[in-house]
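Please study the protein below:
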Amino acid sequence: MSQSIVAKRYAVALFDLGTEKSALAEIDAELRVIQEVFQENKEVNEFFNNPRISIDQKKQFIRDTFSEVSAETRNLLLLLADKRRINDFTDIVEEFTAMKNEARGIAEADVYSVRELTEDERKNIEEVFTRKLNKNTLRINNIIDPSIIGGLKIRIGNQIYDGTIGTQLSRLEQKLVTANK
């Protein structure tokens, strides 16, 4: 079974449980903190990937370390340790976040630009794309890319809106080449 299918199944179960208990925001916040721990702490990943450490030891570590999180989040981690799927955690968080955002009418956008966007530019992009995508909110993650000569490239989900000068020049070049044939 592919990683994304497995991650989606766990995320759907957690999303349904969070919806049922009206705890989506709490679970989402906890998942993000735990994801940050996994991403920034190499020792934690080595611990969970070490075959010499028993599953019981890993589960006890989860109980001790994440004692303050909700039962739903802790039980997810314990289940992942049991099934030897702790490495799927990041994918599960991404799927969960996507479902939560979809339910609330939120889209997340990576906006590539040559410099930091101003607040007005962010608002303009948000207005245009919330209408275009029929969403309530657009969360913008501005990524500085010095290779962009000018313009913007926006990635929302699996859609890319490329208005960079480099892309426009490439399109112009293609038109000129096909026109001269």
